[in-house]
Please model this.
Amino acid sequence: TVLNNDIRLVIVRALILMRNRGLIDCISLCELFFLRLLQCQDRLLRVTIQTHIINDIKKQNEKHKNHKLNSTLQNFMYTIIKESNAIAVKMALI
Model:
């Protein structure tokens, strides 16, 4: 079934809030966002996801570099680049 754009945005914001409170792992949330939600045609949703991913990675590396997280995310981004979804590839290259 297809969700309404507003409902989808509320769900994404709830997931971001759970991530900010430490209830969801950064890697699992990034995988979810890249694999499922970036395939949506809703531009506001994609911008919200992109902003969160960038800010979350910056926040994780603010005090000291988290090499394990960075290498895991880099490997994941390389697999995304090999896929055929143009929107996800563009976001992975940013």
The mean pLDDT is 84. Residues 5-93 form one domain. The two ends are 31 Å apart (CA to CA). Residues 43-60 form the longest helix (18 residues).
